[in-house]
Specification:
single chain; mainly alpha; 64% helix; globular
């Protein structure tokens, strides 16, 4: 299934691809690496929509805003919002990056 997450910046796309390769090199299972890759892409999409074009321009404030957003983001598979556990996994993926 193709992702609905759109990342326009080639730099962000490349960073996400390299992150996935790095995780697989470290021994993460392919599915786990893919999920973390998708979570990073979602963060990059969020950042792009706010006009941040370079990774070096991302601040802790942006990450805090993303955390607030992700806690209230609609769940794509069921009704309601994502669980706090899933929000934590999103943030954990950012930390790993």
């Amino acid at each position: 299934m193709k992702s609905s997450i759109v990342v326009v910046s080639e730099n962000y796309q490349q960073e996400a691809k390299e992150f996935r390769k790095h995780l697989e090199t470290l021994g993460h299972r392919p599915h786990g690496a893919k999920v973390k890759h998708m979570m990073l892409r979602e963060f990059f999409s969020y950042i792009e929509k706010r006009g941040i074009e370079k990774i070096t321009h991302i601040t802790t404030h942006h990450i805090s805003e993303y955390y607030q957003y992700i806690q209230t983001r609609p769940n794509k598979n069921t009704e309601g919002t994502i669980t706090l556990k899933t929000a934590f996994h999103h943030m954990r993926s950012l930390l790993m990056y």
